[in-house]
């Protein structure tokens, strides 16, 4: 969509803090209309419609998409950024509730949003979707089994959407952040010590942490016209951690 056709409309989940808040800020700065969705009310601002919703709740996600279309009449870009961390548990020590929570938020959330948004994007002639995955979506040692498996599923969801809808004007790509601070995703987590000790063996290769703003800049690029030939990409933004 070109600027001449009007202001773009974007919906961002997990928008109240961290990478999501940075995405919202950068979208507004470039003149887009933004719907900011989170469990807690995102900061109000010019050009921002803040909505409170649990992305694991299908009805709540569908309502957020509906409110976006009612307010703005379109949806050009969807940023599925909301996510929860696990406690680094390996599979033999995995708690069912932890597994279910990780998949409910990290996988069901993006799926609900994509399923609700894509028919409207198709009707409008296209759109862009950016799913926030993680390095844990392409490697095995960055979290516990629940988070790792859920983020691998996000990568699979991304590639399947890119394949099924790429020839109909919808692009879908995955952002895979590395060490990024500050974010809330690990706040208040009581870690499984054995799993954490195992993961810490990788810490000697971790680059200095980056900021949400730098992750957001890549997310916006993936949704932009400059990336109009980028579809189904899984993009690590990790300072070269995977290359070590």
Q: Helix and strand string, N-terminal first? A: EHEEHEHEHEHHE
Number of domains: 1
Gross morphology is globular
> For the record, what is the CATH homologous superfamily label?
NAD(P)-binding Rossmann-like Domain
Secondary structure: helix percent? 25-40%
The computed structural class is alpha/beta
CATH architecture: 3-Layer(aba) Sandwich
Average pLDDT level: 91
**Uncertain ranges:** none
Q: How much of the polypeptide forms β-strand, as a percent range? A: 15-25%
Secondary structure tally: strands: 7
Give the CA-CA distance, first to last residue.
38 Å
Question: Largest sheet, if any?
Answer: 7 strands, parallel
Q: In CATH terms, what is the fold-level topology? A: Rossmann fold
Largest sheet, spatial ordering of strands: 3-2-1-4-5-6-7
